[in-house]
Design brief:
heterodimer, A: 135 residues, alpha/beta, two-stranded antiparallel ribbon, 5 helices, 7 strands, globular, B: 342 residues, mainly beta
Chain lengths: 135, 342
């Protein structure tokens, strides 16, 4: 009985920790994987390339769960810190990444624009996309 | 007349505040982020007003009014232009006089070329990439209305030349700058030091736990007067450190200068400041700064202590108050400011 309970609790923890979202690029992109620090630099526009490939990060408009989770887990910033960062960047002539109004339009943007990189629920990832990082 | 002019300034401020997204109808615009027309044109700007009161000064001024335009021509080329009026309007309340200086000067004008994350080139008039304070020189982005002497007298704030920079290939999160100027400034009207040549390098390292450290070294040459007979050469060595988290910020910078003039001896000066900020509630913070400045040409070193309060209803709108204690008490003063980045 104890063993069954132990296995059940392990299974429950695994389910609770399973990633819901993924950072993705187009399937034909030569980029294979990126860690959180590199993603943070890309979405804060401190870095613009992976190798010689120019990157085009794209954000979801508004404050949907996928974006807030991306900001807290990958960027490790709250919305106030992010706003402060982009106001300071505005003085330096740097704009925030482009935005798209829906998850479907982010998916289409990534599939069609060279170098585009964005985040989606794992359930939306299909053969046209490649997962670089899960969160 | 003075009252009418300040009403105009006040109305301008109110208009800016009305563009806050909560209030404004135009959802495309967000205060502090500029108006993006398209990829190659974003418009923005800032202004700051300051009130200063000491034993011999009672002054209200619109000290900075600036407009900016920047954009990207491609994913490798971008530009920035900033025009600024310094001391645009000054009212001396003690003498009951006013003055104005609206003609703008070129604060920044440069083109960026990004070869890769390891190699970018900036050409034109730009902020010298030294330290923290120098790179956030406008009132609204600072924690205090005043600047430490460190930032005003030791290194040219601006560089008209070339800066090669990027992430160092051998160190993740290590950023380098190598910069060079070999001409006069593009617009010498409002700069702190007017070099005819300037070169140096800077390094900055960021750690994941909120710490950043850096340093720079360089040399610049100034020519006094219209002939080149009086030249001074100044070398500098600078170090900085910074820690930030949600509630606290701590910044420290120090610099040593060594200046030699043709036909004269060598003089040195050193300056250091440490500043702490405590954000005790959202939008409210307390700031304290201590400064030390010593020029060997002056017998008594200067020590300054500052205690300030900052209120930001939104980050790009800043209302600040501070009191400064100087070693020479006649310099003690109260300063407050209101500034907006739009």
């Amino acid at each position: 009985m104890r063993i069954i309970l132990l296995l059940l609790s392990i299974a429950l923890v695994s389910v609770a920790e399973a990633a819901e979202y993924a950072v993705v690029v187009a399937r034909n992109s030569p980029i294979e994987a990126l860690d959180s620090e590199r993603l943070r630099d890309i979405f804060l526009r401190r870095r613009s390339f992976e190798g010689n490939i120019p990157l085009v990060p794209v954000n979801l408009l508004g404050e949907e769960a996928v974006r807030t989770q991306f900001e807290s887990q990958v960027l490790q910033m709250n919305r106030g810190q992010i706003n402060q960062y982009w106001v300071t960047s505005h003085f330096q002539g740097i704009k925030p990444p482009a935005t798209q109004a829906s998850l479907q339009s982010i998916k289409t943007f990534i599939e069609r624009v060279d170098g585009a990189i964005g985040y989606l629920p794992i359930s939306m990832v299909d053969d046209g996309l490649k997962v670089l990082h899960e969160f | 007349m003075k009252l009418v002019e300040f009403r105009v300034v006040g109305a301008c401020m109110a208009l800016c505040l009305l563009h806050h997204p909560v209030i404004a109808q135009d959802s495309d615009y967000e205060i502090g982020l500029g108006k993006s027309v398209n990829d190659w044109l974003t418009l923005g700007g800032y202004f700051s007003t300051e009130y200063e009161k000491s034993s011999d000064v009672d002054q209200l001024q619109l000290d900075d009014v600036a407009v900016m335009a920047y954009g990207e021509f491609s994913n490798r080329f971008s530009y920035l232009l900033e025009l600024e009026s310094v001391n645009a309007y000054v009212a001396n309340l003690e003498r009951d006089t006013t003055s104005s200086n609206f003609p703008p000067t070129i604060e920044r004008l440069y083109i960026d070329y990004k070869r890769s994350d390891h190699l970018s080139v900036r050409v034109g008039k730009q902020i010298t990439p030294v330290g923290y304070w120098n790179q956030q020189p406008i009132n609204v982005l600072r924690e205090t209305s005043s600047n430490p002497r460190f930032s005003k007298e030791m290194v040219p704030k601006f560089l008209t030349g070339i800066d090669v920079h990027g992430f160092a290939p051998l160190g993740e999160d290590l950023i380098y700058h190598v910069y060079l100027q070999n001409s006069r400034d593009m617009d010498e009207a409002n700069i702190n030091i007017k070099p005819v040549s300037h070169y140096g390098f800077a390094l900055a390292k960021q750690y994941g736990n909120g710490w950043r450290i850096g340093g720079s070294a360089g040399q610049f040459k100034e020519v006094m007067g219209s002939t080149s007979s009086t030249r001074t050469f100044t070398r500098y060595w600078q170090a900085n450190g910074r820690f930030d988290n949600e509630r606290y910020s701590l910044i420290a910078e120090g610099i040593i200068n060594s200046e030699s003039a043709v036909g004269a001896g060598r003089e040195s000066s050193k300056a250091v400041y440490v500043q702490g900020e405590y954000r005790y509630r959202p939008r409210h913070s307390l700031i304290s700064r201590v400064e030390y400045f010593h020029d060997t040409g002056v017998t008594v070193p200067e020590r300054i202590g500052i205690l300030g309060y900052s209120f930001r209803p939104v980050f790009p709108v800043s209302l600040k108050f501070e009191y400064q204690w100087h070693q020479e008490s006649s310099y003690n003063r109260f300063v407050s400011s209101f500034s907006v980045l739009f």
